[in-house]
Each structure stands twice: as structure tokens, then as C-alpha cells.
Amino acid sequence: MQARFVTFEGIDGAGKSTAVRALAGLLDERGIDHILTREPGGTAVGESIRGILLDRRSEISPETELLLIFAARQEHVLRVVRPALERGAWVLCDRFADASYAYQGGGRGIALDRIDTLRDWVLGTLRPDATFLVDAPVELASERLGRRGDAPDRFEVEAQAFHERVRATYLALQTREPERIHRLPAQWTPDAIQAHLSEWLTSVCGGAA
Ligand SMILES: Nc1ncnc2c1ncn2[C@@H]1O[C@H](COP(=O)(O)OP(=O)(O)O)[C@@H](O)[C@H]1O
Ligand SMILES: [Mg+2]
Questions:
Q1: Residue 100: per-residue pLDDT
Q2: C or N terminus of the chain, fewer CB within 10 Å?
Q3: How confident is the model at residue 208 (pLDDT cuts 50, 70, 90)?
Q4: What is the rounded CA–CA span in Å between residue 197 and residue 27?
Q5: Rg of the chain over CA atoms, in angstroms?
Q6: pLDDT tens string 135-152
């Protein structure tokens, strides 16, 4: 069976990390080799860049933010994503390139063709085989974040309108690529989300464990 590159997207607090862990559990049950990774991050340098990006004390222009994210992505794709796929392991990634369109494009207002240029440079033809958009109303996501209780990062402190633009851009991406991007309503219970992921996995791999 061919290894798949699966990404999870959505606004902060939507339930991405919960969903990605659910799929990892299903792969474990089937004995399918996989790695769990995230963006920005996934490498030592990428995690350092993540620290800069999330630090509320960082003063960063939208363009610098985009370039830093793609710098981290270059390392991640080179050292983690491609090697895993090449050895036949599935790659489950908590956020990937769609997030640059949603956050730096929709959220910060950078022209999408600029992002296309960086994506084509850094990714070449690499694209996720499947993407799950955990789609949450902004109020629900911020309520969940509040319950999680850690200090808000540089993105989380943005105004509600910013998160609304990010969500709307994710939904527009989903409408444009419905074959690749599957929408998971964040209002579903974790069990319902896991059941959907399990069905999807069966459709991709067949019923055999
Ligand atoms: N489908 C769900 N229903 C109810 N609560 C959820 C669901 N998914 C996640 N949560 C809870 O919401 C909070 C944020 O979830 P998390 O997966 O960390 O979101 P994200 O990674 O998108 O920021 C966590 O406390 C988590 O337990
Ligand atoms: Mg998370």
C-alpha cells in the first residue's frame, strides 16, 4: 500500500490535534507505519522558528511571517516529510501549506499568488493526498481554547475578525478542492470524528486490518 500524506487544518481550538491523534490511533490499530508531525515546526530549526512566530513579543510583518513559515516548511519537507514518505510511512501533519493561504493570505491579506510562488518553490509537486478541515465557528474554537487554559499565542490574540477571515479562507479552499479537502464539523463529538476518519481509512486501504 502506498504511503499517504494527510494534513489537518482549522483555526486554533477547532480540534485538529484531537483529530490527528484519532487517525494515528486508527493507523496503530492497523499496524500502518506513520509519523505525527506539525507546522510550523517538525524539525529543530522549525521549532525555533515556531517559537519566534508564536511569541507575542515578536514584531513581525506579514511578509516576514510568511517567509519564516516557508523557511520552516522547507526544512520540514526536506528532513521529515519526504524521507518518511520515501520509506513508506504515512505522514500525519497538524497544519501544512493550506494554513499559509488561510492565515497569511486570508488573515493577514498577502496576495495569494505570492503564496503560490513560495509553495511551488518549496514543495515542487508535493501536495497532501488528503486534508481534513476541522471547521469550527470562531466562538466555539475560542471557548475550547479558553478551556485548554494555556496563555494565548501571537495568533490567538488576534481579533475575532482575523479568525473569521482565516475560517472563511479555509472554507473557500475546501470548496475549490472538495476531492482533497474533507470538512469535519467541529461540533461532531470526538467519537463521530473518529468514526468518519475510520470510514475514510477503510475507503483508502480496504477493510483488512
Ligand atoms: N470534537 C470535539 N468535541 C468537543 N471537544 C473537543 C473536540 N475536539 C477537541 N475538543 C477539545 O477542544 C480543545 C481544543 O482541541 P485541540 O484538538 O487541541 O484543537 P486544535 O489542535 O485545533 O487547537 C481540547 O480541550 C479538546 O479536548
Ligand atoms: Mg493543536
A1: 98
A2: C
A3: low
A4: 10
A5: 16
A6: 999 999 999 998 888 899
In whole angstroms, give the CA distance from residue 82 to residue 133: 22
The whole-angstrom separation of Cα 198 and Cα 203 is: 9
Domains present along the chain, CATH in parentheses = 5-205 (3.40.50.300)
What cell was used for 192?
Answer: 463521530
Residue nearest to atom 23 of ligand 1 (CA): 13
Residue whose cell numbers read 485548554: 148
Asked whether 14 and 141 are in contact (CB, 8 A), the reply is yes
Chain segment 26-57, per-residue pLDDT in tens: 999 999 999 999 999 999 999 999 999 999 99
CA dihedral of residues 119, 132, 85, 37 (deg, nearest 10) = 90
| CB 196 within 8 Å of CB 146 | no
Least Cα distance to 52 among 67, 33, 36, 35 occurs for: 67
- Look at the pTM and tell me if it is higher than 0.70: yes
Q: At what angle do helices 62-76 and 112-123 cross, to 10 degrees?
A: 20
Q: Which ligand is located closest to the Cα atom of residue 16?
A: 1
Q: Report the length, in residues, of the chain.
A: 209
pLDDT at position 198 over 90: yes
Closest ligand 1 atom to residue 13 Cα is 23
How many angstroms does the Cα of residue 185 sit away from the middle of ligand 2? 16
